[in-house]
Amino acid sequence: MIDDKVNIKKTEMQFGNADAPGHVTCKSIYVDDIPAMEGLLYLRVFDSPVAHGKIKNIDYAEAEKTDGVVKIFCYKDIPGENQIGGIIADEPLLAGNEVHFCGQPILIIAAENEDAAEEALHKIKVEIEPLPVITDPRVAFAQNKLLSPSRKFKIGDTLSAFTKCKYVFEGKTETNGQEHLYLETQGAYAYPTEHDSVKIFSSTQGPTQVQRTAARVLGVSMNKVEVDVSRLGGGFGGKEDQASAWAAMTALVAYILKRPAKCILHRMEDMRMTGKRNPYSSDHKIGLDENYNILAYEATFYQNGGAAADLSPAILERTLFHCTNSYFIPNVTATAHSCKTNLPPNTAFRGFGGPQGMFVIEAAIDHAAKSLGIDASLIQRKNMMDDGNEMPYGQIIKNSEAKSCWDEAISKYDIETIKKEIKAFNAKNDFIKKGMALMPVCFGISFTNTMMNHARALVHVYSDGSVGVSTGAVEMGQGVNSKMIQVAAKTFGISTDRIKLETTNTTRVANTSPSAASSTADLNGKALLHACNQINERLHSFIKTEIASNTECMVEIKDERVYINDEATVYNWKNLIQQIFMKRINLSAKGHYATPVIHFDKAIEKGHPFAYHVYGTAVIAATVDCIRGIYEIDAVHAIHDAGTSINHLVDLGQCEGGIVQGIGWMTMEEVVYNEEGKLLSNALSTYKIPDIYSVPKDLTVQFLNTDKNNLAILKSKAVGEPPLMYGIGAFFAIRNAVLAFNPGSNIKYNAPITPEKVLMGLYNM
Ligand code: LUZ
Ligand code: MOS
């Protein structure tokens, strides 16, 4: 009776990334791999060559006559609303009379082939009367150009607290943007369907966001737009909101011309037209008592939002939530301004404003430490949060692992010895210097917008025992599909081989929140758990009444076998399902999950916004070549609070990738716009991201396995974003090496700390 074809042992085996075999054998399908339908149209976008101005004249009649061009669309061709703004309706799909950033879409060319579209692109003539261009958030703020109302988080009373401080330090910091550089550029494929509807394949983290935006642009109800996502070749936040424009354009063409259409951005178009991580310029003031307790902290954040709100108001909020990182500070006043500039609308990027907030407090602590002639780690450890501490936003800390991660890192990686070795090395070497830094992380898990923390799943058990799972989770390389398979396999007590993860589709699973905020596995996993449990209840009830004839017995399905009162029966998963099907019992279920406990009141800026926090500490060491200014990251060792990880390989991959991406943001990745708002770092030749050679030689991540109760899926804590912030330590490690060479260096808290800045800092140039 046992179904030998299924490898039962797999449920207990180390289960890696279920999507990986497809990637390495070229079987994974991305948007551009979808087979072309008969009559497919190719789209190209004509975008603004200037950052701010009035469109005086636009002439595309010649271009439209190009052989192979079917139609060129302008904003007047939009049947619904020319609006794609999510949080605030301030962003047209296609520019009307004004342009607000270089790269802003103005026209869409639909052509029979790519060459015709390309040819037409060069025939378009546009006359724009220039208006003043602002690229600096502080300049925008001075002119009262804000994207959304400013926010202030407050606890205690900084004003009186500063008077009690023995030491007070003030300064300024800068963090720059970051290009997402997902391997798969933005794109979509759409075709018209019956009933005046359209189906869109999109490379998006937010299928519902794409559905809502396309419906709005087409002027149709949401049920006429179906969005389907197989997987993304990376998202990193860049496709949380910004996949919608291209999907809406493709849907527009398909809907109007009644032909299939696709739009795949070229790399340089993608870099030019899409927003990046928000750069921030910030002021800090930190006050300590004689024992180095931080009594008071003030920070003001000037966020460079770009030309439209996009997700910047939410990102701004998360900056405030993480402005004290892993520390407890009794008196905090943090103010944040979302400034409107003439850059492409900046957007979500792994960490979502959190890293920008954390950099400032780490710089403030480092600033204090350097001024006092002590080690920053002394202030860091002294002020680390404990259970019972109140965060500036009102949440009381519970189950903190801040100190346990820190202390474990100190002992496991023998930090004192590393410090001594670095000191000895620096004493011996005149032109090569080493530095190190410790970087603690405390990241809140949940969408800060409470309303977004819910998800659904749809499970079908087919009559042959195979299982189809649909959720709202989007696979983007982070391994969420693997975790969903594991959740279903574990809950049913069957092999992972039986489970197929379906595409993410708005018709099967509706009203999804984007796959973001590190919460995808938690929210969708719990919805999936709910669905599987409903089916399990029906199975168990059938077994009790029909097989055991005893409603009081104990039923369990494990390793695909049915156990009654701990005794194996002749029933396995497959023949059980066959029986159940013949009895006409429902083998499908829809699950729903909404995070309990969380709430936040924006009127008073207090509440309990996070389901839980993820903690960790990394030690980072760097070597600087003091003649050339170049450097290497020698080692990163992290103790990471993973809860009870259900997939070690996936979680480890997220940690390693996050650390390298964080180091990239802090060191070599430099987004550069000129004063006219034109992107200069507009290709891979001028924008450098870490490659395999810049991965630290010695990178280790150790999970602090904790079994405390939390709201994570199967206690396996969220892992997507938190590790990125370990990379912030690279900035301070390099800076410390510069100071070892030149203790009077004028090097600023200005990230990224590129080799050019290091060189200037080494010699006070
Ligand atoms: N997206 C979002 C996010 O809409 N809200 C969030 O709180 C968030 N956090 C991290 C990343 N994306
Ligand atoms: Mo994100 S920054 O979790 O899309």
How does this model look, in words?
With 765 residues, the protein is α+β, with helices and mostly antiparallel strands. The protein has 19 helices and 29 strands. Helix 17 crosses helix 18. The structure holds pteridine-2,4(1H,3H)-dione and dioxothiomolybdenum(VI) ion. Dioxothiomolybdenum(VI) ion (MOS) binds next to loops.
The parts where pLDDT drops under 50 for at least 5 residues are 1-13
Largest sheet: 8 strands, mixed
**Radius of gyration in whole Å, from Cα?**
27 Å
Question: What amount of the residues lies in strands?
Answer: 25-35%
Sequence of strands across the biggest β-sheet:
3-5-1-12-9-10-11-20
Overall shape: globular
For the residues shown, what is the average pLDDT?
A: 96
* Total number of beta strands: 29
Between the first and last Cα atoms, what is the distance in angstroms? 79 Å
Helix fraction bin: 25-40%
What is the number of helices? 19
The ligands found in this model are: pteridine-2,4(1H,3H)-dione, dioxothiomolybdenum(VI) ion
Query: How does the helix and strand content classify structurally?
Result: alpha+beta
